[in-house]
Design brief:
Number of strands: 14
Helix content: 25-40%
Number of helices: 11
Distance between the termini: 55 Å
CATH architecture of the largest domain: 2-Layer Sandwich
Radius of gyration: 18 Å
Length: 270
């Protein structure tokens, strides 16, 4: 790891100013991805801006018909939150399945969304729920936020403060977890929302994406068998040492059915 300057601002404005004035500086949330990347010299940062003192970017609360989760809230806190379990149990379940205890107690929802790893769990939930990413400058709908592989709509000096997730009628997540990395090979999040059924999957070559055919089928009949005959083009995936593209494409349908089953179980009796 190369030497870098370290800053720990106490206010959002100060953090944004540092990011704007210190060329190539990087914000530091949980550090679960950034620090190993720097250690392996796969990336360089002349300065790190630690966001851990930004109290306004922490916490979980109800915001009208949505659940608002502060960007610096760690996965373990989302998983354990009584409010998250009550309003969006599928989200709490997803958070509890991320990585291992060390990752869940350090990694943050904001850090995951800012990094936008194609195999990360949260992007699928945020996109499927039609969430809004609240930043230091604006509010970005999830449909406009995810741009591509490790790319988002964030500006270099823009900081995620919170994620506002509309409370759905039902939501669930299923994934095939890589036994070594614990990242999902493919994961699917389904949500029956007031705006209609939304389905998003991670593991695509270019990152998270919605699945319109699955959404249409589930809008007509929200049950696992509704998506049983739908196939995803393998060209949207890349093969790697863990799975061929065709296998990943097949997994989308399998995980979608399981996610719907989970959503129905978490919703309980009608």
């Amino acid at each position: 790891m190369k030497a870098f300057d370290y800053h720990r601002p106490a206010a959002v404005g100060e953090a944004a100013a540092l990011l704007a004035t210190l060329a190539d500086s990087r914000p530091l949330a949980g550090g679960m991805t950034l620090l190993p990347t720097l250690k392996l010299r796969l990336a360089e940062a002349p300065a790190l801006i630690d966001l851990s003192r930004l109290s306004e970017a922490r916490g979980i609360k109800q915001d009208g018909d949505a659940l608002a989760v502060g960007a610096m809230t760690c996965h373990a806190d989302v998983a354990a939150s009584p409010l998250a379990k009550a309003l969006i149990p599928g989200l709490a379940q997803l958070a509890g399945s991320i990585g291992d205890p060390a990752v869940r107690n350090r990694g943050t929802i904001g850090g995951s969304l800012a990094n936008n790893d194609p195999s990360a769990d949260y992007p699928a939930a945020v996109l499927a729920l039609g969430a809004v990413i609240v930043t230091s400058r604006r509010e970005i709908p999830a449909d406009d936020y995810f741009v591509g592989l490790f790319e988002t709509a964030l500006e270099p000096d823009e900081i995620i403060l919170a994620v506002r997730l509309p409370v759905p009628r039902a939501a669930g997540y299923a994934k095939l977890r890589n036994p070594a990395s614990r990242f999902p090979t493919v994961g699917v999040f389904v949500a029956d929302t007031s705006a209609g059924v939304r389905v998003a999957a991670n593991g695509f070559a270019l990152g998270v994406a919605r699945l319109p055919e699955f959404e249409s089928a589930l809008a007509n009949h929200f049950a696992p068998d509704a998506v049983a005959g739908i196939h995803v083009d393998a060209e949207a995936f890349s093969s790697d040492i863990h799975a061929e593209a065709a296998y990943k494409a097949h997994l989308v349908g399998v995980m979608a059915r399981r996610a719907v089953s989970t959503a129905l179980e978490l919703r309980g009796p009608p």
